[in-house]
Amino acid sequence: MKNKIRGMRIIVSDTYEEMSKKAATIVAAQVNLKPNSILGLATGGTPVGMYKELVKMYNDDEVDFEDVKSFNLDEYYPIDKTNNQSYYYYMNDNLFKHINMKEDNINIPNGHAEDIEKECYEYDKNIYNSGGIDLQVLGIGTNGHIGFNEPDLTFESGTHKVKLDDETIKANSRFFDSIEEVPKEAISMGMKTIMQSRKILLLANGEAKAKIIEKMLFGEISPNVPASILQLHPHVIVILDKEAAKYIEDKVN
Length: 253
Ligand code: F6R
What we know:
alpha/beta, binds fructose -6-phosphate, 19% strand, Rossmann fold
């Protein structure tokens, strides 16, 4: 089942695996059409299957990452690269160590930066100087965050340091031994940076995301539901599994 809502392409897949395959096909198509693409990448549970598919496609010679450059959305703060909970570690483990991207072309905010303001400024400058993001992959938090842009009264524009919401800390504690170990802060791309991406691919699976997906697509555009701003982006593809699409299926049919 496929449809368009407010300019957004909505694809509902039967399973997580199917969602992941479709997402990987879109990323690979982007890279095949423009081998020196600038990709914006996300971490978390959602895109793990997509990365697995991309590695498979790379091994089958269906996609080549030699000239690709990437910018990750976010990183915990403070955290060391070598910490196995860092997004640096995650990206290496799930994608980079399996493909042929050049190390110099990989960008992830430095979770150990001494001068955060400088780190954020340089990160945005680097994205800008690279020509901007061609395809930004996003997940979504149950509170509507994209990157770590948490619900707020205003939209933060550039890369910045954020205080993580209690809901985010709780959700992410599943990856840690205890909730106390989850970092309380992070560095995240801002909304302007995300919105300036030429194309956006947002993925969501599981029932826990169903309510926020409905709000993101049909609710009012508000910094209280950060992902709702995507209604204003001209080129968004949303891929959901059936559970995440639970409250919108009749609307997109
Ligand atoms: C991760 C990120 C976050 C996650 C979101 C969903 O880089 O920016 O916005 O996409 O928290 O996380 P999962 O996929 O674990 O449900």
